[in-house]
């Protein structure tokens, strides 16, 4: 019964994603508007809100919202009763409640065949996942977090996959987090985000993602004998920035990833960066400027100061973590090494002195593009600013990585030593193009 209910939830997650894609006008009576209201009503987190644009709502809109609210309550990860009934003797009551919500939604918007209620993802058995990972052997472990482990696997058809196995937490919390992540991934579709191909709920909660032989950025940057060339590192930096820009601005709802790090960047066959692991991700509706989170989660070494001090989460939280990732790409050092030394604290004095050569990974030797290195270090310098309002947006970061300094017109150059150095490199490169047209 529990497994059936989870399957229904997953199918509805995909169906809601399709419905949101078809909805162009966003108002209080649309599914998007209802989802917004759901997040506004969250009782475990507070938000900073802009002035609302809509007036008082009609009885019809309130009735529609109540229909959606019944289902959304089941997906709330921190409600007063977060899916507890799924793991108690009240399973039958939950089943009736779920069925009622489904009937109301379908009767309002159409039949399941009209909106693709059937999940497009494959439901893997526990045996299939065990065979793919050699029974979750330690040598296949490619990533580990506070609540999950990620294993490299190979399906019977030869396809390589990354299998995320939720390992910790109360059963009801694990189920809620699993459904929440599925719900977010149903709305995400971009070349620089990981592709979900299936899931498994037998013997625990599992997510199955596409994986190339390269694995994660962490495995290539720190675990591979052959070091990544600079050109590939720069491509990864740009690809990750594009993925974050999509999440922050182009998705149906703004998404804060909250766990950007080297292990959560998968690499495709041609080394295209793909952001994965949305277990800590948060939706940020249009009216909200930020979340204030009470539960401390994340990875040390990547956490922004405002989150550590006040629990504030917004897009700039991801920007800070991305800045740390840029430093990892340039230096080849971990965000937090085995002696617990912070990469940010180590790099800041060198960034202030414009000592780019001392920051570059020694394994690269002189085989790197100095102009690109300076641009990446400039972006990293801005991204790890202690004050979130002084950090750039991801659209500005992409401009910087491509040598466009127009977004820095309001930045005091004296405070960013790499600005002058990168500018000189850009000027030299531009002059070289004028004198030697064939050289890029």
Automatic annotation (TrEMBL):
ATP binds at residue 165. It is found in: Cytoplasm. Gene3D superfamilies: Phosphorylase Kinase, domain 1 (3.30.200.20), Transferase(Phosphotransferase) domain 1 (1.10.510.10). Its EC number is 2.7.11.1. It catalyses: L-threonyl-[protein] + ATP = O-phospho-L-threonyl-[protein] + ADP + H(+); L-seryl-[protein] + ATP = O-phospho-L-seryl-[protein] + ADP + H(+). InterPro entries: Kinase-like_dom_sf, Prot_kinase_dom, Protein_kinase_ATP_BS, RBK1/2/STUNTED, Ser/Thr_kinase_AS. The keyword Cell membrane does not apply. Residues 136-405 form the Protein kinase domain. GO terms for molecular function: ATP binding; GTPase binding; protein serine/threonine kinase activity. It comes from the Eukaryota. Belongs to the protein kinase superfamily. Interacts with ARAC5 and ARAC10. This is non-specific serine/threonine protein kinase. It comes from Cannabis sativa.
């Amino acid at each position: 019964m529990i497994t059936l209910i989870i399957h229904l939830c997953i199918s509805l997650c995909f169906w809601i994603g399709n419905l949101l894609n078809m909805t162009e006008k966003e108002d209080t009576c649309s599914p998007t508007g209802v989802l917004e209201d759901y997040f506004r009503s969250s009782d475990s987190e507070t938000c900073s809100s802009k002035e609302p644009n809509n007036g008082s709502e009609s009885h019809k809109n309130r009735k529609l919202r109540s229909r959606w609210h019944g289902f959304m309550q089941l997906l709330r990860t921190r409600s007063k009763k977060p899916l507890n009934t799924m793991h108690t003797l009240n399973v039958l009551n939950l089943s009736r409640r779920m069925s009622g919500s489904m009937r109301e939604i379908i009767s309002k918007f159409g039949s399941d065949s009209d909106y693709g209620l059937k999940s497009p993802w494959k439901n893997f058995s526990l045996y299939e996942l065990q065979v793919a990972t050699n029974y979750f052997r330690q040598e296949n472990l490619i990533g580990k977090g506070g609540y999950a482990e990620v294993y490299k696997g190979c399906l019977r058809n030869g396809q390589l996959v990354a299998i995320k196995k939720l390992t910790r937490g109360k059963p009801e919390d694990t189920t809620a987090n699993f459904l929440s992540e599925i719900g977010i991934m149903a709305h995400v579709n971009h070349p620089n985000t990981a592709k979900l191909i299936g899931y498994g709920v037998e013997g625990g909660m599992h997510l199955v993602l596409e994986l190339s032989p390269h694995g994660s950025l962490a495995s290539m940057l720190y675990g591979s004998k052959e070091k990544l060339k600079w050109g590939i590192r720069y491509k990864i930096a740009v690809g990750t920035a594009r993925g974050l820009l999509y999440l922050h601005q182009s998705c149906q709802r703004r998404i804060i990833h909250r766990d950007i790090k080297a292990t959560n960047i998968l690499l495709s066959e041609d080394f295209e960066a793909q952001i994965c692991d949305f277990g800590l991700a948060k939706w940020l509706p249009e009216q909200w400027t930020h979340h204030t989170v009470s539960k401390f989660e994340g990875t040390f070494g990547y956490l922004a100061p405002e989150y550590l001090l006040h629990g504030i989460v917004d897009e700039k939280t991801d920007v800070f973590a991305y800045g740390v990732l840029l430093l990892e790409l340039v230096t080849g050092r971990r965000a937090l090494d085995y002696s617990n030394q912070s990469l940010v604290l180590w790099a800041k004095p060198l960034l202030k002195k414009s000592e780019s050569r001392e920051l570059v990974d020694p394994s690269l030797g002189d085989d790197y593009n100095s102009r690109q290195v300076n641009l990446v270090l400039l972006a990293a310098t801005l991204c790890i600013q202690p004050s979130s309002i002084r950090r750039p947006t991801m659209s500005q970061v992409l401009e910087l990585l491509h040598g466009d300094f127009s977004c820095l017109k309001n930045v005091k150059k004296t405070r960013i030593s790499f600005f002058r150095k990168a500018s000189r490199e850009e000027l030299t490169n531009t002059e070289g193009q004028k004198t030697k047209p064939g050289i890029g």
